[in-house]
Amino acid sequence: MHNYTTHSIGYICFKKTQAQINNLSNKQKKMKTYNFKFALLISISMFITGTLTAQVLKIAPKSSVITINGTSNLHDWKSKSELIKGELVLAGENQVKSFTLEIPVKSIKSGEKLMDSKTYETFNADKHPNISFKLTDISNLQINGSNVNVVFNGNLSMAGTTKKVAIKATGKNVKAGTYTFNGSVNLKMTEFRMQPPTALLGAMKVGDGVRLVFDITLEEQAQASIE
Q1: Which site in 171, 172, 183, 222 is 20 to 30 Å from 43, CA atoms measured?
Q2: What is the mean pLDDT of residues 113-119?
Q3: Eight-class DSSP state of 221
Q4: Predicted confidence (pLDDT) per residue in 178-209, tens digit
Q5: Which residues contact 51 (CB under 8 A, 6 or more apart)?
């Protein structure tokens, strides 16, 4: 991935104009001095408003899955979604510009209709149809060849409540333009003002704690200019 800043172009114009002035008559120098000042102004402007080429990576739904693991007083349970949308934007070498992720609540399936119904009710899916994550910053970035370790810090929104979370992840550049990431985060439903569901007339009670595990594939889609 190559990134270019426009202020370098302005700097070349600046140096070229300066060299030309030294070989001119006084009258010519006055005119060239004006051009010199103009080139300097342009170079400063280009430096301030310089742009970078960004690499846009989109989540590949067919090879991505998010799993929700939980417990109950009767047995452990698991639900998953394979309908995941989102993108990661890289600006410069190893610089993450943004990362967003979205999961439709009603795409979460357990294989049991009663469990799924209770899940949608707990999320209040009709009013809050999506789970979303938006990156605020990254930390503990470590790169070893094609392998990456990183912590994604950001805002996770579920059931109308947004909380800051830290998702520890490992990644790999599997081939040109394609990356895989996997990781997990432990949450409590009550932290998002969600009431753990019950079933079978209260005989089955779901535990408050859940673990979100994600395995996603990101594929390069385009190059874009960013400020």
Answers
A1: 222
A2: 92
A3: E
A4: 999 999 999 999 999 999 988 766 678 999 99
A5: 5, 6, 225, 226, 227
The token duo for 137 is 């910053």
Convert 106-123 to b/e letters by CB count within 10 Å (16 or more is b): bbbebeeeebeebbeebb
CB 162 within 8 A of CB 156: yes
Q: What is the pLDDT of residues 32-60, one digit of tens each?
A: 555 544 444 444 444 444 455 678 999 99
pLDDT number for residue 227: 54
Place of tokens 């009603």: 106
* Pairing of the two strands 161-175 and 77-81: unpaired
Q: Which CA distances in Å does 100 have to 41, 54, 149, 155, 166?
A: 38, 15, 18, 10, 14
Query: Per the structure block, which two tokens stand in for 129?
Result: 């149809």
Tell me which amino acid residue 95 is: Q
Asked if residue 107 lies in contact with residue 83, where contact means CB atoms within 8 angstroms, the answer is yes
- Beta strands 96-104; 65-72: pairing state: unpaired
Q: Which amino acid is at 127?
A: K
Q: Which of 108, 103, 107, 91 is nearest to 134 (CA)?
A: 103
